[in-house]
TrEMBL record:
Gene3D superfamilies: P-loop containing nucleotide triphosphate hydrolases. SMART domains: AAA (SM00382). Pfam families: ABC_tran, BCA_ABC_TP_C. Keywords: ATP-binding, Cell inner membrane, Cell membrane, Membrane, Nucleotide-binding, Transport. It comes from Trinickia symbiotica. One of its GO terms (cellular component) is plasma membrane. GO terms for molecular function: ATP binding; ATP hydrolysis activity. The keyword Iron does not apply. PROSITE patterns: ABC_TRANSPORTER_2. This is ABC transporter ATP-binding protein. The keyword DNA damage does not apply. SUPFAM superfamilies: P-loop containing nucleoside triphosphate hydrolases.
Length: 264
């Protein structure tokens, strides 16, 4: 994989009179695993909302695989291969894990990821597509990659939190995305669960571009090829994990005097 998966040029966004993104420049190469870190309220999730089409930028440009997608809607971006981790609320609690994945595979094909149909229509869609080997295979691959085989036929709403988060990621994968934006994939997990999730993330992102927002710096340094630091709506540094650890401006603006491994 060569070229740029994602490029942001001078992206701004304000809420009311408050500027939250103040000219973000960011380039992520294809196949790269990039972590985005920064203090609470720095604008990380807002940035994902702008890239993912949930919010329009005030100014600036967003390019996906070289194509200007500024202001494009979420379902169009999904069709172009941009996947976002869904919050657990986006999981269909009353469908099985496998049906959730089939639905994601189906919606990914039709670019409807962000406009999931109501349950009634969903059943009609699922039964219409249920014999499509392509959809089945895609769901099955996600099931195996996220180690969800043992709960394939459990109702998603009955899963524990950590497993729901894995399903969440499975949904993004099954949709066929080549570029994944994951907002705090290990949030709420204990250390053991987080370490397991990081190992899975490493595997499932092997042939993809991954941009992840993460507060768990152990996870960041274990996973990321490069790290960008967002402070007050601007990227103040980008570098390898070692470079970021050593960066004085990063320490001053974000990490203070505390050793990084102690900050979560
Ligand atoms: N829809 C919104 N309307 C108004 N203000 C918002 C909205 N979304 C975010 N903000 C504000 O924008 C700022 C940045 O929020 P954002 O959620 O992007 O931060 P973050 O870096 O993801 O923080 P965290 O690490 O806590 O998740 C915050 O001050 C937040 O209150
Ligand atoms: Mg956030």
């Amino acid at each position: 994989m060569t070229g740029e998966a994602l490029r942001l040029e001078g992206v701004t966004r304000r809420f009311g009179s408050t500027p939250v993104l103040r000219g973000v420049d960011l380039t992520v190469r294809m196949g790269e695993r990039r972590a985005l870190i920064g203090p609470n309220g720095a604008g990380k999730s807002t940035l994902f909302n702008v890239v993912g089409g949930a919010l329009r930028p005030g100014s600036g440009r967003v390019l996906l695989a070289g194509r200007d997608v500024t202001g494009e809607r979420s379902h169009e971006l999904a069709r172009m291969g941009l996947g976002r981790s869904f919050q657990t609320t986006r999981i269909f609690a009353s469908l099985t894990v496998f049906d959730n994945l089939r639905c994601a595979a189906l919606c990914g094909r039709s670019g409807r990821q962000d406009r999931l149909p109501g349950l009634g229509r969903l059943f009609t869609l699922l039964s219409a597509w249920s014999r499509s080997p392509d959809i089945e295979e895609c769901a099955q691959r996600a099931l195996e990659a996220l180690e969800l085989n043992h709960v394939a036929f459990a109702l998603a709403g009955t899963l524990d939190y950590g497993t729901q988060r894995r399903l969440d990621l499975g949904i993004a994968l099954a949709s066929g995305a080549h570029t994944l934006l994951l907002d705090e994939p290990t949030a709420g997990m204990n250390r053991e669960e987080a370490a397991h999730a990081v190992a899975l993330l490493r595997e499932v992102s092997a042939d993809k571009t991954l941009v992840l927002i993460e507060h768990d710096l152990d996870a960041v340094f274990a996973l990321a090829d490069r790290v960008s630091v967002l402070v007050a709506g601007r990227v103040i540094a980008t570098g390898t994990p070692a470079e970021i650890r050593a960066d004085e401006a990063v320490r001053a603006a974000y990490l203070g005097a505390t050793p990084m491994r102690d900050r979560r």
